[in-house]
Design a protein that fits this description.
globular; mainly alpha; about 450 residues; Clc chloride channel; 2 domains; about 0% strand
Amino acid sequence: MEFKPLKSILQSPRFKKTIGRLNPLLFWAAIAGLITGVLGGSFRYLVSAILDSRIRWIDSLDKLPGQGAIVSIIISAIMVYLGFFLMRRIAPDTSGSGIPQIEGMLSGHFPLVWQRVLPVKFSTGLLILGSGMVMGREGPTIQMGGSIGKMVGTWFNANQEQTRVLVAACGGAGLATAFNAPLAGIMFVFEELKPTFEDEVRAYHAITLSCISATIGQQLILGTGPVLKLTQFETPPLASLWIFALLGIAFGFIGYAFNTLLVKSLNFFSSLRGRSYQFTGLFIGGFIGLMSWFYNPTTGGGEEMIIWSFNNVEPSHVLLLLFFIRFGMTILCYGSGAPGGIFAPMLSMATLFCLGIARQTHTWFPTDLPYPEVLTIAGMGALVAATVRAPLTAILLTLEMTANYQLILPILVSCFTASTTAHAMGGRPIYTVLLERSLKK
């Protein structure tokens, strides 16, 4: 067969037709995803560095009675106050997790001004999360990701539909970056953001590619491996599945209560006026600083607390008490309107609750539950499924974060029962409620 020179191939009508069919959206999505991964990975690194530096400095001051407490209160109060000031003065739409704002943009209700959202969410996220507030990093990375999608669309003069795809794709890339979980990021877009596109197949390809490139970007900054380096457990016996079903039912009730109280907290803080409103960040930040000095596991996003709870053999009553404290702290912090997410705090709450009951459950049913810590892995996904009402995202997120893929059946059971229990009680997905609340305002 005669070989055609490269020039003739490039100039052939068939090649030009093929090139014409290529979708530039995929190229844009890959670029936007990579930027999201690098920026989100840097954000994760800086938050951890600020938290560690603050804790080490405060610990070094405890040689003098009360000095560590005073410094901790002052530092956290100033950081949270500055975070609130920047958010309220420059970009009020960066309040909370940012997920309802992304959903509102995709449905045509809200604008997305990336020029102010991106820098303000990054800086306030560092201040709020670095202060020890009980909030997750996934909210900031998701909203920053959506803003990056809008930014890249502006660079390439993308049309309205292409911009919507980029925003959705990079929103999922933000979740993938926060937890090193690309599959969960992809599922999050379709299960939580629920956008509709003119060309679903091309949009799916762009979302997938964005999550892949974002994961590569964040791994360049933070390295590979699961976010939570926990024990790789063996598959529990089939006879134990009823325990995971009961666990899911319990988290269905907890998730329903969490959503209800969270909305009440938001309504309370939004009703504040005058100095109470002006100094909200100062008061809450000071309280966070005090709690951080008094007992550090009560504060922080949750990842460090999960590792701590696995590495320290604490009595069950201590773990359950810590669960209730962090439950209340999460409602307080998120309800205040501070920039941050609730995924990571929920994962830590589930860990504490499950570890608190796991030993007793193992004592009662040693053959059905040979490894009591397995309850913790299943419980993480169950609480997310009950509150966010995105069970597939919760399942994939749990598997990718812990690398316990062999526990997929127990996780499926717990997530399904948690979601259906919360639904049967009349609960609604938290981000849907928050979006409707924002639209009414």
